[in-house]
């Protein structure tokens, strides 16, 4: 499909630079197949049914943006994917100035040797490994805010850009639909009889990359590592067998569920990379509802929601959201979308 079919005019002031406070005070647009309604995230327990199961991505963001120097040249590396305890791939700027064998120096004695480069993607080996490296990254790294948030990260972002249920470190971007949840909202969902399961998809730097191709068939997704445990798969399948609906919290959860689902919609245990790219025409096999934030024009995520609910439905919903002043993207408001029949 032509990428320009997914374009729309988004005023720059619609991109949120800070989250709502409290988190569940964010607005929520409930998008059904025939109607939509404006509400709040805190109203979720009344929008779901007893027996429904929400699927959360429990990945944890780490400070993956590193600012260093090679000699006198400033270098930025956004870590993307771990290969060994001390070796990572990352997107570098300026990548063209980096060659294998060169060393990049970061604060507090952290160094990295370049061992390979493919365009903007470099492979580096650090002088620390495993837990020691992650501890040092926490000390000297920066929270990798999306490029459309036009400010430097700060101490507040270390808390804001993390879900309250984050458990497994490895993401460089938050599963942002989950940022809206509070302990009080979780308690209310429990009381409403809505259960939950946790899966893991370590969101990579590819989530920030624009679609540069003119046709979706020519766009290449970067692979991300994910896992659906035996226990999570069993809980999700049991809920559906008992008449409950599967509610994917975030596009990352949906992409992982679709990677783990067979043609009958049964979720199987899954562990490994996925580069699934969901566009209109794809048959959604796993989730019945999708909770997600509002996405940017011509992004793979807007393509995904159009596949989930239909292009006309989502184009009309986004036009409504823009007209009504909804806040977009990572720190923005949310939508609860019903899958088209």
Which keywords apply here?
341 residues, alpha/beta, QueA-like, Thrombin, subunit H
Rg: 20 Å
Q: What do we call the CATH homologous superfamily of the largest domain? A: QueA-like
Q: Portion of residues in helices?
A: 10-25%
- Rounded mean pLDDT score: 95
Tell me which CATH architecture of the largest domain applies here.
3-Layer(aba) Sandwich
Describe what this molecule looks like in 3D.
By secondary structure, the chain is α/β, with parallel strands linked by helices. It has two domains: 3-61 and 159-338, QueA-like; 65-142, Thrombin, subunit H. It contains eight helices and 17 strands. The strands form three sheets. A nine-stranded mixed sheet has the order 2-1-17-16-14-3-12-13-15. The two termini are 21 Å apart.
């Amino acid at each position: 499909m032509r990428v320009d079919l997914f374009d729309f005019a988004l005023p720059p002031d619609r991109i949120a630079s800070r989250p709502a406070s409290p988190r569940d005070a964010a607005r929520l647009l409930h998008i059904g197949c025939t109607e939509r309604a404006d509400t709040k995230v805190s109203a979720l327990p009344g929008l779901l049914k007893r027996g429904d199961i929400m699927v959360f991505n429990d990945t944890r963001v780490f400070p993956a943006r590193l600012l260093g120097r090679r000699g006198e040249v400033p270098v930025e590396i956004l870590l993307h994917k771990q290969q060994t305890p001390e070796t990572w791939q990352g997107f570098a700027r300026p990548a063209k100035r980096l060659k294998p064998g060169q060393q990049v120096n970061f604060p507090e004695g952290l160094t990295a040797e370049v061992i390979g480069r493919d365009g903007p993607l470099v492979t580096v080996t650090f002088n620390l490994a495993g837990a020691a490296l992650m501890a040092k990254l926490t000390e000297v790294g920066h929270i990798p805010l999306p490029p459309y948030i036009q400010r430097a990260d700060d101490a507040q972002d270390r808390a804001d850009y993390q879900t309250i249920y984050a458990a497994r470190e490895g993401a460089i971007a938050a599963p942002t639909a989950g940022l809206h949840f509070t302990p009080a909202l979780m308690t209310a969902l429990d009381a409403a009889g809505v259960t939950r399961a946790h899966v893991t998809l370590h969101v990579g730097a590819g989530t920030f990359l624009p679609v540069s191709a003119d046709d979706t068939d020519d766009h290449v997704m970067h692979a991300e590592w994910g896992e659906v445990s035996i226990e999570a798969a069993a809980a999700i399948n049991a809920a559906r067998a008992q008449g409950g609906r599967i509610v994917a919290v975030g596009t990352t959860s949906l992409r992982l569920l679709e990677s783990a689902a067979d043609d009958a919609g049964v979720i199987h245990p899954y562990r490994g990379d996925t580069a699934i790219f969901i566009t209109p025409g794809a048959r959604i096999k796993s989730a019945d509802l999708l909770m997600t934030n509002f996405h940017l024009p011509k992004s793979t995520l807007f393509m995904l929601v159009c596949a989930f609910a239909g292009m006309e439905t989502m184009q009309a919903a986004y036009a409504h959201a823009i007209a009504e002043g909804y806040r977009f993207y990572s720190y923005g408001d949310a939508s609860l979308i019903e899958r088209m029949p």
